[in-house]
Specification:
Layout lengths: L1 H9 L5 E6 L1 H4 E2 L2 E2 L1 H16 L3 E6 L2 H8 L9 H24 L5 E6 L1 H5 L1 H16 L3 E6 L13 H11 L4 E6 L20 E2 L4 H5 L12 H13 L4 E5 L5 H5 L8 E3 L5 H11 L5 E5 L1 H10 L8 E5 L7 E5 L5 E6 L4 H7 L7 H5 L13 E3 L1
Parallel strand pairs: 1-4, 1-7, 4-6, 5-6, 7-9, 8-10, 11-13
Antiparallel strand pairs: 2-3, 9-10, 11-12, 13-14, 14-15
Helix pairs in contact: 3-5, 4-5, 8-10
Length: 377
Amino acid sequence: MEQRSHKAQILPRTRRVVVKVGSSTLSSPTGIRRESIATLAQQLAALHAAGKELVLVTSGAVAAGRSRLGLSGKYKTIPAKQAAAAVGQIELMALYKEHFAAYNVNVAQILLTHDDLGHRKRYLNAKHTMRTLLEAHVLPIVNENDTVAVEEIQLGDNDNLSAQVAVLIEADLLVILSDVAGLYSKDPRLHADAALVPLVEQVDAALLASGGEAGPLGRGGMASKLEAARKAAVSGIPTLIVDGRADDALTQVFQVDRETGTLFLPVADRLASRKHWIAYTLKPEGTLVVDAGASLAIREHGRSLLPPGIREVQGTFDEGACVMCLDDTGKAFAKGLVNYSADALQQIKGARTSHIEQILGYKVGDEAIHRDDLALL
């Protein structure tokens, strides 16, 4: 009952969702199960048609490649795993493309490493790319770039990756499809009296220490899923761990009156938490002076800042930097993260958004600062 009441608060405002599916859910010792891909595509396509913005974080490339190469057991070296991923990634994406095409859903492949998400410009490039794909109603399919990852830049498991992607795209919900029904009070493989825990308000050190071991097909066990839920929670994103083997697993997630799996509550509201971070933590690297119309649109209507509303650019800063926004009287009223560098903004200030690409030779987006990256002071 308690989980249902929280779902009733979370789901009505859930628009952008990251869904993670693991190797143990998609694979068998003989390779990828086509029926699992088909079932997953059917459920995601239904949510897509209902207006959800979805990103799928998938495992399975190594398992698919291992089967294709006719080898059994885990690969023990990174080059061997990279070779399997190179072979398997093609098969995995071909299956996704085939099954999503049946529902007229376009998909895109995105391969990431920890190095990509730790590098400021590559992080922003990934963010802009995913935002553009979602706006075009394309479903991005993300996997760790196992073919180039080495020990020191591996994300480690796709549970961790899914949490980082959820933070990257500012998701409203993270759903982890597992080979178990959720978090249990004890290891259900060892204890017959283990009970499913429907709701977790906080992922603390004791809970993290209770996580289980990984299965034979995956790198992450329950411990990695708990860590993913913790990372999402501190960024204001709730997480649901559910049994991905059920044919209606995702359907159950979005049924408000039905308890399913384990729901991990966020520490704070996602957007409020992010805007608080922008407003009170980040140090401005420059200043934008905007006209009265832009100031009113931001203050009263929650709009983005567009180049036509910028009158003056002060300071030297790169794309993604935090800047102070001043109105035409010189009063600071907002802080935000810019989509363009100071040099680029100098060139496009006052210009129509339709002229950005003509002026710069490229275009990141219409917004100088997106409304989700603007915090009123």
